[in-house]
Amino acid sequence: MLNRKTARAAARNARAIEWVRTHTIQDLEDLAGEMQTQGEDVRDIIDLLGELREIDAGLGLETGSTYSAVGEHAEIS
């Protein structure tokens, strides 16, 4: 049973990595907004977006992306 759980977790991680390779931070923001609209808990995604913003700022890349829509919803929830 443990091997099956480990294999499933590895498959999820692989799918997540592939998704990140083919999408932007804005895509993640949009996804979080849609999920939140459907009543799903997106706190982990909000936290991840915050970490990505910090990394972006530290690298000096400044994507110019706006995070307010998701952030505002997160604070209300």
Quickly describe the structure.
The protein has 77 residues and is mainly α. It has helices at residues 2-22, 25-37, 43-59, 68-76.
Can you put this structure into words, describing what you see?
This protein has 77 residues and is an all-alpha fold. The chain is built from four helices and no strands. It is extended and about 45 Å long. The C terminus is likely disordered.
Q: Determine the fraction of residues in helical runs and give it as a percent range.
A: over 70%
Tell me the series of helices and strands, N- to C-terminal. Answer: HHHH
Q: Please indicate the percent range of residues in DSSP E strands (runs of 2 or more).
A: under 5%
Give me the number of helical elements. Answer: 4
Spans where pLDDT lies below 50 across 5 or more residues: 65-77
- The secondary structure category is mainly alpha
- What is the straight-line distance between the termini? 37 Å
Number of strands: 0
Mean of the pLDDT scores?
78
Give the overall shape: extended
Largest sheet: none
Radius of gyration: 15 Å
